[in-house]
Amino acid sequence: MIDQTQVETLYDCDVIDNKGEKIGSVKRVWLEDGTGTPMWAEVHTGLFGMKESFVPIQQGQVAGGAITVPVAKEQVKDAPSVHTSGNHMSDEEQEALCRHYGLIPKAKTGEHDRLDGRRGRGDAAEVTLSEEKLDVGTRKVEEGRVRLVKHTVTEQRNVTVPVTHEEVRVVREPAQGGTGRAFADEQAEVTLHREEPVVRKHTEAVERVRLEKDAVTEQKSVKGEVRKERVEVERDDEPRGRR
Q: How far is it, in rounded angstroms, from Cα 117 to Cα 11?
């Protein structure tokens, strides 16, 4: 459980849900009035950190600069809005949050103070350092179009076809009786045939062609300039060159 001794380490920590997903970063911590126990973290969520949501941190674990909480990121997105007045959270507002997260609210102890910044250091002076982060995403753009175009081409085909033709040959054999028409002019004939190639054409489907899209993932590097604030210590009793 998170206690008062860890409050100093909570600011700007990443808040991780029970599935290991980042919810956002801590901007304010709300303490229980009277005990000072850290109860809620006001977390900046959304794509550009423009939304503020309340996350229970009583049962959270702090490690490696992050807070892991036993709630889901979806619960945080749907958490009720809390309209605090005078940097205080009322018991009714806390109970609404507890009901949403399925927690058992503590006995009413009055309002809950917001701890804004680090406190408990007497008259210590401090500044807040900020830096820009790159929010990198993707968007879909049209790269080009591909179409199938069908057209007709003519080509020559050489095909060998076997053909048959008839030829005459003389066959002599002994006559079987009878004398025929002796000493008279006579002739006989046969008709010869041959085959010749005939070309006909018909159309049949031989192949179907279609276009399909596949999604291919590749790594692209992006660059961007970000600003970062740094702090230097200056003393009035020392020259500026000796910082």
A: 8
Residue 93: inside a domain: yes
pTM for the whole thing? Answer: 0.43
The domain total for the chain is 1
The answer to whether residues 4 and 36 touch, using CB atoms and an 8 Å cutoff, is yes
Residue 86: pLDDT band (50, 70, 90) is low
Token match 């503020």: residue? 52
Identify the CATH number of the domain in which residue 89 sits.
3.90.50.10
Classify residue 125: in a domain, yes or no: no
**Greater confidence, 49 or 216?**
216
Mean pLDDT calculated for residue range 161-174: 93
Q: Rounding to the nearest 10 degrees, give the CA dihedral for residues 31, 35, 36, 38.
A: -50
Across 100-172, the runs of DSSP E, i.e. the strands, are 112-115
Q: Which residues pair with 40 in a beta bridge?
A: 30, 56
Tell me the C-alpha to C-alpha distance, in Å, between residue 38 and each of 42, 98, 102, 126, 193: 11, 15, 18, 22, 113
